[in-house]
Design goal:
enoyl-CoA hydratase, single chain, Rossmann fold, alpha/beta, 2-enoyl-CoA Hydratase, Chain A, domain 1, about 725 residues, seven-stranded mixed β-sheet, NAD+ binding
């Protein structure tokens, strides 16, 4: 044994070749945490001290290779000065450089996922062999940073500027065939042939058939472009990526600028440039928010995994109501491997549900994600029915009928009589109280909410809503089924609108108030889109549907009349009363026309302004800060109330629900992190400036106490 630690072992295998193996004890994956890097330092020193070795193969004993750095260590590091961040990256880079400079050929055998630092480690060796099903990439831009362990330096010299920009600025995870095509890896083999292939490369180097020193010097040298070629490659890339990423996500463009700066430098100087650029990005608020978002997501996954241990197995599901939503649920369930019955009261509904499922499957075939045979297999997992004949075999039911409490009550009671005593019943209601829907059920302990967001196949969130009598088994089984469908479940307690809609409608309330006070709805949309929302509030209402918006708004007004009930007619009422439902019938605040690809695009409709005149109190110009404040304060305060009322368990759940459910700008981290970043005291001061607008703008007593005590939501 050359070296033995708790994350790394190094031993000699046949032919005086060393095998450095990653197998981090106590973890399901390998990651480059402090312990692993310390051991890698020691292992590298031990290898450099051996004069008798003929080569090195780096492997992993886990299913993945190395998933990257330990993100949990970023928060403390990034909070410190830039000098400390640079010093930290230097330690890792010194190790990777020493691996690159070892006096014998080196090969990395990539058996599974090799991301971030894992990919950068692989780039430090002379060659890379990759398993057919493995993936490799540098996704750091998704955390608001870019590679800091030599990734921008080595990859740009190995695969060329264009390919390096695509990998780094896009944060892509690349399959083995794509990595081989651009030259990021040298061979692709089946997983059980990796070690053999790696040893073969080392033997070829020692036999003089491969020149590993030439390969090494290429990576350590300058980018092979003349001044004009370099300028063209980088300037075009910056312009394209800036247009795609937008100003709210600076890391992709900064990565390109960094590559441009070090293009004419050799390795050691180039890595210094990279380290400074990395530290600069690490200190941005965007990085803080996106790292926080990643950690929140991990915490959410752990909660879901804990629930799964208590879950009953869902071998067969059913969905009631085979419209667009029901068809979407059936498609998602079948796609992810859980057979599902799709019931409706008439054949037209069945046809609509099947049409929705087929539409999504055809898109996958057109994109090359599946073939016609696989599409047929998925469709065969959906069994349409007009009766309850097979419901005794169903483990979980999703009720997705019309959003009407009387209809839902009747359907749920009827279904309860048709299923087994242990079957879990769920309702896809977006606003109706779970306690209310459970009132007439015989087994309310088996009932909870399972709120999907439209379109089902795209939206990652599922709210699992606990009623007063809901059992842990019902919650656990519903969470497990949501996960099996590829969704992110968040468990919330019952209240009007639950979490997402309860928070969304105060945001719409801010919009209604702005329109009433003379703001141009198009201007409001542009400001909020610039702020980071995927669409402004008027556009979002058109997408949601004005009929849905009006109904949900009435439920919210009944539940929280002090702040969500509106006096007189609102802009939403005007749109609804004039049958302007939005994209559903091609006219709402905007008109909708089909573009060349057959997709709806919004166009300005001057008629909207005429219709709104009765609810507008004269035109008024609002600046951006005023619009943002009037829109965001109600949303943030309602999120605070949801936390205080125990609707969500913790701040992370609240923020993730808004990001996954309504597209809250990820780079801002969520509503509660947004308050933290502003400062709780500053946020309360801002809200107080708008106190005359009503209860939507009044901070809670607890929030005022937090402001006085200097407390934050995330510490």
């Amino acid at each position: 044994m050359i070296y033995e630690g708790k994350a790394i072992t190094v031993k000699e295998i046949d032919g005086a070749i060393a095998r450095l193996d990653f197998d981090l004890q106590g973890e399901s994956v390998n990651k480059l945490n402090r312990q692993t890097l310390e051991e890698l330092r020691e292992a590298t020193d031990a290898l450099a001290a051996r004069s008798d070795l003929k080569g090195l193969v780096i492997t992993s004993s886990k299913d993945s290779f190395i998933v990257g750095a330990d993100i949990t260590e970023f928060t403390g590091l990034f909070a410190g000065p830039e000098e400390d961040i640079i010093a930290s990256t230097k330690k890792a880079n010194d190790i990777f450089n020493d691996i690159e400079d070892l006096p014998f050929p080196t090969v990395t055998a990539i058996n599974g996922i090799a991301l971030g630092g894992g990919c950068e480690l692989a780039l430090s060796t002379d060659y890379r062999v990759m398993a057919t099903k493995a993936k490799i990439g540098l996704p750091e831009v998704k955390l608001g940073i870019f590679p800091g362990f030599g990734g921008t330096v080595r990859l740009s010299r190995l695969v060329g500027v264009d390919n390096a920009v695509e990998w780094i600025a896009g944060g892509t995870e690349n399959r083995a065939d794509a990595a081989f095509k651009v030259g990021a890896v040298d061979s692709v083999v089946e997983a059980d042939k990796l070690l053999e292939a790696a040893v073969a490369i080392i033997n070829q180097c020692n036999d003089g058939k491969l020149d590993n020193q030439a390969r090494r010097e290429e990576k350590k040298g300058k980018i092979k472009l003349n001044a004009m070629e370099s300028m063209m490659a980088f300037e075009i890339s910056k312009a394209f990526v800036a247009g795609k990423a937008g100003k709210n996500y600076p890391a992709p463009v900064e990565a390109i600028k960094t590559m441009q700066k070090h293009a004419g430098m050799t390795r050691d100087k180039a890595i210094e440039v990279e380290a400074k650029g990395f530290a600069k990005m690490a200190k941005t608020n965007v990085a803080a928010c996106l790292v926080g978002l990643f950690l929140n997501d991990q915490a959410l996954k752990k909660k879901a995994s804990a629930w799964e241990k208590e879950a009953s197995k869902v071998n067969l599901a059913a969905v009631l109501g085979a419209g667009i939503m029901g068809g979407g649920v059936a498609y998602q369930s079948a796609l992810k491997g859980t057979p599902i019955l799709m019931k409706d009261i008439n054949q037209d509904g069945i046809n609509l549900g099947l049409k929705e499922a087929k539409k999504q499957l055809v898109k996958r075939v057109d994109k090359g994600k599946m073939d016609a045979g696989q599409m047929a297999d998925v469709l065969n997992q959906i069994t349409p029915t007009l009766n309850y004949g097979d419901f005794k075999n169903v483990d979980l039911v999703v009720e997705a009928v019309v959003e009407n409490p009387k209809v839902k009550d009747a359907v749920l009671r009827e279904t309860e009589d048709a299923v087994r005593d242990d079957t879990i019943l769920t309702s896809n209601t977006s606003t109706i109280s779970i306690n209310k829907l459970a009132a007439n059920l015989k087994r309310p302990e088996n009932f909870c909410g399972m709120h999907f967001f439209n379109p089902v196949h795209m939206m990652p969130l599922v709210e699992v809503i606990r009623g007063e009598k809901t059992s842990d088994r019902a919650i656990a089984t519903t969470v497990a089924y949501a996960k099996a469908m590829g969704k992110t479940p968040i468990v919330v307690n019952d209240c009007p609108g639950f979490l997402v809609n309860r928070v969304l409608f105060p945001y719409f309330g801010g919009f209604i108030g702005l329109v009433r006070d003379g703001a141009d709805f198009q201007h409001v949309d542009k400001v909020m889109e610039k702020f980071g929302w995927p669409m402004g509030p008027a556009y979002l209402l058109d997408v949601v549907g004005m009929d849905t918006g009006k109904h949900a708004g009435e439920v919210m007004a009944e539940g929280f009349p002090d702040r969500m009930k509106h006096d007189g007619q609102t802009a939403i009422d005007v749109m609804f009363e004039n049958n302007r439902y939005g994209q559903k019938n091609d006219v709402g605040f905007y008109k909708y026309e089909l573009d060349k690809k057959g997709k709806q695009k919004k166009v300005v409709d001057e008629e909207t302004y005429k219709l709104l005149e009765p609810v507008v109190q004269g035109k008024k110009e609002f600046d951006e800060e005023d619009i943002i404040a009037r829109m965001m304060i109600p949303l943030c305060l309602e999120t605070v109330r949801c936390l205080e009322d125990g609707i969500v368990e913790d701040p992370a759940d609240a923020d993730m629900g808004l990001i996954y459910g309504i597209g809250f700008p990820p780079f801002r981290g969520g509503a509660l992190r947004y308050i933290d970043d502003m400062g709780v005291d500053k946020f309360v001061e801002l809200a107080d400036k708008y106190a005359d607008l009503g209860a939507l703008y009044h901070p809670t007593d607890k929030l005022r106490d937090m402001a006085k005590n200097g407390e934050t939501f995330f510490g």
